[in-house]
Amino acid sequence: MAYQTMTLPSFGSVRMDLSEGLLKPDMSPEAYNADTRSGALCSAKGFSRVTPETVDAETPYERMYVYASERGDRYFAAAQDMLYLYDAAAGIWRPLYQFERSVSGERMDFLKVRVGTADRLLIACGSEPMLSYDAGTGLVDVFGTAEKLSDKTVSYAELYFGRLFAAGDPSAPSRLYWSKSPGGGRTIDDWRADPASENVSGGFVDVGVDDDPITGLFALSNQLLIFKRDSLYRLLGDRPSNYRIVSVDAAFRQPLHTACVRYADRLFFLTDGGLCFYDGQTVRKSAAFRALEPLLRQANLGGVRAAACGDTLYFAIRMRFGAPYNDTVIEYDVLRDRFMLKRGFTAADLMTVHGALYALTGGGKLVVFDGNTSYDGDPIDVSYKTPAIDLGRKDTNKTLLRLTASGEGQIGVRVVSDGGVYETTARFSTVPEGVTEIPLRGTGRVFRLTFSSVGGRPFRLDAPMTLLFDQQKRPG
Questions:
Q1: Domains parsed from the chain with CATH numbers
Q2: Ramachandran bin of 39, using left for φ above 0, alpha for ψ from -120 to 50, beta for the remaining angles
Q3: What is the C-alpha separation between 391 and 400, in angstroms, rounded?
Q4: Distance between CA 306 and CA 218 in Å, rounded?
Q5: Rounded CA gap, 33 and 452, in Å?
Q6: 358: closest CA among 43, 47, 56?
Q7: Separation of alpha carbons 388 and 22, rounded Å
Q8: 40: burial class by Cβ within 10 Å (0-12, 13-18, 19+)?
């Protein structure tokens, strides 16, 4: 007998692009609903309902918005035919506005602004003129007027150096509008030229050609990015007299408007070609995202939604063929350069408010990730696979004997080798600093361990762990 031990040092990121034999011990070819930030393996945190009632829509859900104010947060949900607002006093989601034509979440934008002295939420839906929700009166009305040239049908709205910019007009697909500079009696719902000065005037410009329509607007600290279907431009300058629109010479696959998210004055966006970011001058592809290339090749990014919360980026995508809503969330820890996947719920939309991540589920629930131990009552099933391990010797048989570890709660362990499959569960010692010995079985030249939750209950598996095995050279 040749008893040996090996140390499994820590738990880390998901990586799918390399052969398992090339993965480091702290990488996983497949993991979901796990939290490995500390190096230990823990159950991911779940979410709770923000409102007890669900949105009861007759058409698919598209977007959501949390309007934060000192008077309390207000919750909006948009289906293809209707905009809803949660009425806390009545305990219902009430219809707020019926769209004249069906709307698409990828051509819909929300923007919190001030018009004169009134706080407003603008809703651009691409099928009719922008809507304006008055936070004071609780009413919705059309935002602009024909007299002020602001009654345009647009899909995207953004604030840049105090002005309102808008685009996505079906009658002028490449046109970029901007408002007057607010102040001195001027408001952002006025897009007319001002005889007093070019620099306070509203106006517009056609960016490129109409058969390359504008598909998104995003303001950074010193420029406005103008995404088009086949190209990217940036507007520089802080007033019309010094505006310059410059083409960005970069080759990349164009993202959906809803796949873009700001982080540290950079714009990140997910496409089927990977994760890209705009660094202030050009577009670069994130080398780290190669780790998920096999996943992205199988995914449907037709309804991707994105949000940034703290130092983590979230991208909701669809992995099931024909799924009506996103069923997988990619979680990218920017500082640690690590990935994890979340499953077990659907996400029609994502948004971050007050440092918390919100989601509208495909079932019409508005939820917030608040550290709950379940997904609003549904169990959080955790799975973390180690790479296939041969210890550098495929010519020997390894017989697994025992795993020594510490942690909290109960854990499932699955051993897969070319000799078969063995599954067991173990409850960790409750003695302070205590360790638990988990008997294992399985013989083969290559083996893999999978750690999982039991019944969706939370657990913690500390690192490092010690694996005891017997290694023998294969006969003949």
A1: 3-43+383-473 (2.60.120), 46-372 (2.130.10.10)
A2: left
A3: 13
A4: 14
A5: 10
A6: 47
A7: 9
A8: middle
The Cα 266–Cα 86 span in angstroms is: 33
Percent of the chain with pLDDT over 70: 100
Quick one: tokens of 455? 């019944």
Q: Which pLDDT band holds residue 200 (cuts at 50, 70, 90)?
A: very high
Decide if 305 contacts 260 (C-beta within 8 A). Answer: no
Q: Cα dist. 355→151, 233, 346 in Å?
A: 34, 30, 21
Percent of the chain with pLDDT over 90: 87
Whether the model clears a pTM of 0.90, i.e. scores above it, the answer is yes
Q: Are 361 and 377 in contact (CB under 8 A)?
A: no
pLDDT over 90 at 127, yes or no: yes
Instruction: Provide the token pair at 190.
Output: 């006025």
Buried residues in 195-221 as b, exposed as e (16+ CB within 10 A): eeeeebbbbbeebbeeeebbbbbbbee
Q: What is the pLDDT of residue 1?
A: 52
* Number of residues in the chain: 476
What mean pLDDT value characterizes the chain?
A: 94
- Cα separations (Å) of 26 from 260, 332, 336, 384? 30, 16, 13, 11
Whether the pLDDT of residue 287 is over 90: the answer is no
The CA-based dihedral angle spanning residues 465, 470, 472, 474, taken in that order and rounded to the nearest 10 degrees: -80
